[in-house]
Design goal:
The chain is an all-beta fold. The chain has no helices and 11 strands. The strands form 2 sheets. Strands 2, 4, 5, 6, 9, 10 and 11 form a 7-stranded mixed sheet that branches. A hairpin with a 5-residue loop joins strand 5 and strand 6. About 35% of the residues are buried.
């Protein structure tokens, strides 16, 4: 069984920063990509960022481009999301995900259906 565990969420004022982590554990696991999504109350799950595990290509939602940075540590099997210049509209539960299927191009890993494993999520609240 593969487990993804997020950490690093919390309450921050607008303009502040947070760094989320997502560690993978369980059986030997290799993913082609890891992603971050978020879900606010009453809204659909929204893509935030993704990174290819081999090569490190990154993809971002337009709403976070220039403010958020996704990175990975291959040794620790951990992915990070550095969030700067946070806004109240960034408030949501942030979930990390892992994809065990290879897809080419920049579209597939922006879609929840590409991911096989999901964490439980960590709450991020940005106050105005």
């Amino acid at each position: 069984q593969v487990q993804l565990v997020e950490s690093g969420g919390g309450l921050v004022q607008a303009g502040g920063s947070l760094r989320l982590s997502c560690a993978a554990s369980g059986r030997t696991f290799s993913s082609y990509a890891r992603g971050w999504f978020r879900q606010a109350p009453g809204k659909e799950r929204e893509f935030v960022a993704a990174i290819r595990w081999s090569g490190g290509s990154t993809y971002y939602a337009d709403s976070v481009k220039g403010r958020f940075t996704i990175s990975r540590d291959n040794v620790k099997n951990t992915v990070y999301l550095q969030m700067n210049s946070l806004k109240p509209e960034d408030t949501a539960i942030y979930l990390c995900a892992a994809a065990s299927t290879y897809y080419s191009g920049s579209y597939s890993y922006t879609q929840p259906a590409a991911y096989d494993y999901w964490g439980q999520g960590t709450q991020v609240t940005v106050s105005s």
